[in-house]
Amino acid sequence: MRRPVESLPLEQLSRNLSNADRGIRLALSVALLVACLARWVDGHLALAFFLFAWVPIVTGLAGWCPVYQLFGISSRRK
Amino acid sequence: MWTSRLKWYSFLGLVLFVLALDGIRTALYPIQFDTGGRLLLDGFVLTGGIFLLGLLFAFLERQEARLERQRAELLALHHAAIDLGGELGLAPLLQKIVDGAHDLVATRYGALSVIDRAGRIEAFVTAGISEEQRVRLGDPPVGRGLLGVTLHHGKHLRLVDLASDPRSAGFPAHHPKMSSLLAVPIACRSPFRGNLYLADKLDGEPFDESDEATLVRFATQAANAIDAVHLHEQLRAVAIEEERLRLAREMHDGVAQILASVNARAQAIREHLRAGRAEDAIQLLERLAADARSVHAEVREGILALRSSSSTDGIATALKDYLEEWQDQTGIAVDSELEPAVRFLPEREVQVLRIVQEALANVRKHAGASRVQVKLTQLEKEATLEVADDGRGFDAAAPPHDGRPRFGLVTMRERAQAVEGELEIETVPERGTRVRLRVPVGRGNLVGFRRSA
Fold this sequence. Notes:
The complex is a heterodimer of chains A (about 80) and B (about 450). Chain A is mostly helical and about 80 residues long. Chain A has one domain. Chain A has 5 helices and no strands. The termini of chain A are far apart. Chain B is α+β, with helices and mostly antiparallel strands and about 450 residues long. Chain B has 3 domains: about 80 residues; about 140 residues, GAF domain (Beta-Lactamase, 2-Layer Sandwich), CATH 3.30.450; about 140 residues, Histidine kinase-like ATPase, C-terminal domain (Heat Shock Protein 90), CATH 3.30.565.10. Chain B contains 10 helices and 10 strands. In chain B, the strands form 2 sheets. Chain B has a 5-stranded antiparallel beta sheet with strand order 2-1-5-4-3, with helices on both faces. In chain B, strands 6-7-8-10-9 form a 5-stranded mixed beta sheet, with helices on one face. In chain B, strand 1 and strand 2 form a beta hairpin. The two termini of chain B are about 60 Å apart.
């Protein structure tokens, strides 16, 4: 029998974030970026904000969080 | 379960790895970062590691879920196959197939079409449709529309919305609303032709490739079960044919021979009477009466043998009834010792019963015995049946008196072979005969129908 082409692991990720969760993450990432670009914070904190802002952006857009995945959490309603 | 433990170990391993990396970096490149800088760097590595682990476990868990689903499906398929294997009637088997497929893939509706030589639907079995709905639907489908498509092309059909398919036609007025459809043919080696249909999954999702693969596997099992039913029917027909031939042979060797001799004696008596030899005529008349008694006994015994058949209470009950009647008919005393727990498969039981009947017929016809002992015992997986008489016995090595082969013994041996048994005949002239049959119990279903070599 013909086998379907296996999709990439990234496409196989089952979402574990609710829309509200995703919204909060995106808002948080915007807040982090604004805080460091507007120089509300400086030094290591500004660098940390800039470096870690991509985490909520990626997770929020993908609807999938690796920490939730590891600990078996999901904010989506079953 | 093992993945959740592995997750914790991996997470702990990642934290230890980051700490070790920090330690190595400090030892090799002793540039002094301040605490904030170190935390930033370690945090960055940790975050990357968590992402990678998350991806890895997402993939692993998906595979694990898939394996679990396949395991459950195979188990369900296995149970369904066992269930189908036990059915030997075609109509109930077809209903079981539809019900099994409908449960296995979890759908709202299921159906099976049986197709005749002309390609029309001969019978249509359904699941998930109530009797009342069936009555309202009217005549079964004939194979127009989608039912005809699968049937003519003999290929799989998987539709998300069957109403939007251009081939969809011929739905009666009260037909329940169906959206998705999955259909596969049942490919048998026997002449049976049919298709299996499922409509609307219970979870509302359309049928996927895995559902199709499951149904194809189930249809293969169903085809095997249908083939087994056909084979069973053919074997039954062969068994009936063999029984008919045996009966014809017995009538030819028994009743027909005696009646021929009755005719010859009647003619001789007429000649004696014409010639005025009354004494000779009376002598022959006595022999004629003996012949008539003999044929009468033979016919009654034959009728009794045909009437007695396997009993649901086991062979001991069937034998007991037969022996009582046989004793009354022949006047030969029967001592029986029958273990009631012995059980054969029904088709074997009939053969064993016929062997006992043949052995007893020989006792009546040839042994001149006054007493017969019949014993049925079981030791582990083997049952033993003995028929011993106190008659005149015979010389097994010597040819029969009338020059004809001993058909009774041949038939008994053939029957013993058919039930995978062993037949021994011990006989000493003037001291009786003992027929012993040893048969294995509780094996193979169709063995009783195996033709003797």
